[in-house]
Amino acid sequence: MEVNQKLAVGELFCLGLMTNIHAQSVESHLIDTIRPYQGSRRVFVAYSGGVDSHVLLHLCAQQHWLKEKLTAVYVHHGLQAIADHWALHCQATATALDIAFKELRVDARPVNGQSPEEAARNARYGVLSSLLDDQDLLLVAQHREDQLETVLLQLFRGAGLPGLSGMPVVMPMGKGILLRPLLNVSKQEIEAYAAGHELDWVEDPTNQSTEFDRNFLRNDVLPVLKKRWPALDKTVSRAAGHCAEAQAVIRQEGGELLKKYLDIEFQALSLELWSCLENARQALLLRAWFGFMGLRMPSRRVIHQIINEVIDAAETGKAEVFTQGYAIRRFRNRLYCFKSKCFQLPEIHDFEWSSQQACLDLSEYLKLQRIEDSCGIAIDQWKNAKITVAFRRGGETIRLPGRKGRHTLKNLFQEAAIPPWERPVIPLVYLDGQLAAVADRWISDEFYTVSPGACYRIKFIKQTPG
Fold first, then answer.
1. Which stretches in the chain have pLDDT values below 50?
2. Domains of the chain listed by start with CATH number
3. Exposed (0-12), middle (13-18) or buried (19+): which is 267, by Cβ within 10 Å?
4. pTM here?
């Protein structure tokens, strides 16, 4: 009995020692990650009530310089009735820690073929992003096991280097910055910290449902893999770091390529030296271009379609590839990417523009605006005329200042290298039935005036649909 008691005391001592070591490790990761951002104005902690986010919130509350800036944020997804109880639990925990609390409600129901996981994630990050202003931080509690799951899921989906790089510790989000201070911390260390500080957390029952890919991986697959490779979370996290480093180099190379090939005036790719690039660099350039346009990275299939069906198509062809709601087309040895909705003719083709109106909406995406300038159409002439706006019907001509004769719009559009899909929606402005201006490109010689402060210049605005 005495021996057993001594063993029990020894075991308790070891347990306490290990708990202390884990606590120090977890805290050091938090401090090291957040130290460069001590000047932040506000710090939000995404707090679900689970063990991971509770540990993160508790850690932050122990940092005196950080505590006064803290707000715990609970996102109510509206998917489970018990979430109301979780919200109350989170608020009570924040109050006990003397931390500000905010509850945000979102509609996380999936739409357009989304998975429930994707819908909830997008809704959550969307509302959290809206919180952030300049010099604000959002802390989330993802850890090394989460990184392992993310990288494996990306691998199973056939991702490239960006996906296999996993989640970064730091990334921009909205107007602020997102930090993952526990990303290099193990789940074991987090649970040891929670036990050592006797934290009280909630468990989401859906975490046990293998209907979701991540839960299936976490509950059924990873335990088997870890029996064979116990340090799997460390090694896969290290591999993700290697991928991230390689991707950073590739991204830089893509940026340099884009500088050489991007025609900034048209937001298009110049194809004059396209054939000088080997296949891998052609794909890299297209991906860099997509990134510049704010689009998701194209799949290998889309890359091949763009190259084979558009770039290598006959110059006179009308081949195009549609992806992410955008059309990819080629014209005059340039590759264009545009929202086709921007170039659909309005339902109404003829408009009256009151001389009292500064702006005229032609459609949801097209607008004309008049601006005072030192040259353009004389303000007096504008105010005394009947102003109408229409679109091409064919055969229109215009006389330009400083040029002889009249010119067809067809020839002017070709001369200016305006892509064919843009031409039908370029508005024509008539004063008393005479063509006075072609959008913001040309003003008729009959109406062109130079008189500082006494003229109107026309601005044509194409708004990109969301």
1. 1-17, 466
2. 2-243 (3.40.50.620), 264-342 (1.20.59.20), 351-462 (no CATH)
3. middle
4. 0.75
